[in-house]
Amino acid sequence: MIYNLVFLLLFMLGFYTILVKKNLIKLVIGLNIMEAATFFWVMALNYREGVIPILKTGSKAAAVVNPLPQALILTGIVIGASTTAFLLTLIIEINKYANVIDLDILKGLRD
Amino acid sequence: MIFLEYLLIALMVFAALLAVIFEEELISIICLSIFSFALTALYLLYKAPDVALTEAVIGSGLNTAIFMAAISQVRSGRKNHVSREDE
């Protein structure tokens, strides 16, 4: 229950940042917060009592925590880092072209 | 265990809130690094040391580094533009 509430709070915080803020770097920060909130939610809801999932010979498979969401989140973190790098490259190029990263001013520069 | 978990969740929400409400980009990025640190400790509590290692290296180190590189590029480009207009 508290995990759902924390996920909702963090996700809405990131979504608010993307919708309201005018600075392009703040938009990437909001995207990062949304991403991390989703990973935290998946990890917290799939946790059960057990040991770290490295099976030794003779140990039972039911004694370890679920390793599938861990593998998915590991992939997601790496993809999130590459997405952040790509968006920041786009922001640097926009700044080279227009010399500003404010969305309100960039809208006026369109024509 | 339960108390530590709730403490880390509170730290995570607080750091995310600070990262959103500050207007200065550098302070926001440092708060995002603190957010990532709390998430790393939570992953360790959830018995996922491999994910915690990746989050510590990428979320807390690499993300901060590339954000700071982008900010320095943006600011130096803006300063050059202003000085060119002055001349």
From TrEMBL, chain A:
Q: Which Gene3D superfamilies match?
A: 1.10.287.3510
Q: List locations, semicolon-separated.
A: Cell membrane
Q: Does Transferase appear among the keywords?
A: no
Q: Which UniProt keywords apply?
A: Cell membrane, Membrane, Transmembrane, Transmembrane helix
Keyword Plastid in record: no
User: What GO CC annotations are associated with the protein?
Assistant: plasma membrane
InterPro entries recorded for this chain?
Answer: CPA3_antiporter_subunitC, NUOK/Mnh_C1-like
- Membrane-crossing ranges are 27-47, 68-92
Q: Give the record's membrane topology.
A: Multi-pass membrane protein
**Protein family:** Belongs to the CPA3 antiporters (TC 2.A.63) subunit C family.
Protein name listed in UniProt: Short chain dehydrogenase
Please tell me the species this chain comes from.
Iocasia fonsfrigidae
